[in-house]
Amino acid sequence: MLLSAAPLFEDVAQGPDGGVAYWVTTIDDVRIRFACWAPGNAKGTVLIFPGRSEYIEKYGPVAVDIGERGYSTLVIDWRGQGLADRLIDETRIGHVEEFIDYQKDVSALMLSAQALDLPRPYYLLSHSMGGSIGLRAVMEGLDVQAAIFASPMWGIQMDQATHLVARVLSWSSRLIDQHHRLTPMTGMGLDAYPLVEPFENNKLTTDREMYALMASQLTAHPELALGGPSLGWLHEALKETKILTSRTSPNLPCLTWVGSDDRVVDLTSIYNRMSTWPGGTLDVFEGKEHEVLMHNSAMRNRLFDDAVKFFSDH
């Protein structure tokens, strides 16, 4: 596995000391970025699968929480976002040709973890779109001892009429080779959400300080920013979530966190899957929005104390 040094914007990441980032090329020749924070004598490594439009530096505070509890952190920039290769000419649109392509990024990440000899066992922590990628990965035998899903995208929140229009429009866009166009279904433009949506109206977090951190990171490093998804991404996401819904959960220890007021992902899909996950646990946080990981220290302490207990039990 050939790795080369990549930038890590420590000025905005607010991560632990000693973070290192690398480039790696996937099997289909896409360059992605990943970063690790590895304290000495770590008890294992937490693999973080971010959501759509996210980037490594956003998870600096999470890496602090994980590192203080004795674990290493490995975070990825998925293809099409962060500093990884953007896949279409309009780089502000989030795009993927096929959702299964993200599994090629997962494969490259796992090979990189082995090449760096990061401490085992491995655990998964995934958020939103990363929860969809992570679910398929664990269904297909991802080498982790246990998995935590935070607001996983096991369905996209839309009313029935909007969902029907989204399916038809995104499917037909491929037929006329327009699937790289910005989807109108999400109401998002070309600019990153935290830069254009006031805190008072945002769908991400109820924590003003964390919302301001996201905006400041993207202002300082606009190359990390990503706007709304393409019609192609939407088509693939709808198709993938439908496929995953039809499959049974793996026999893997699972803890899922979700905010009761999440307006991004489909809560029913989460409730349904967790009701049938063997030995799975669902924690619903009242009054919280989509970004359950992006809150004040009291909330994060509760989450990561629970996470460490969960890891140590498995």
Structure description:
- Strand 4 (45-49), helix 2 and strand 5 (72-77) form a beta-alpha-beta unit.
- Helix 5 (160-175) packs across helix 8.
- Helices cover 36% and strands 15% of the residues.
- The radius of gyration is 18 Å and the shape is globular.
- It has one domain (4-312): Rossmann fold (3-Layer(aba) Sandwich).
- The chain is of the alpha/beta class and 314 residues long.
- The protein has a nine-stranded mixed beta sheet, with helices on both faces.
- It is built from ten helices and nine strands.
Task: Pick out its properties.
9-stranded mixed sheet, globular
Point out poorly predicted stretches.
Answer: none
The H-level CATH homologous superfamily, spelled out, is Alpha/Beta hydrolase fold, catalytic domain
CATH architecture: 3-Layer(aba) Sandwich
Shape: globular
The beta-strand count equals 9
For the sheet with most strands, the description reads: 9 strands, mixed
Helix percent band: 25-40%
Instruction: Supply Rg.
Output: 18 Å
Highest-level CATH class: Alpha Beta
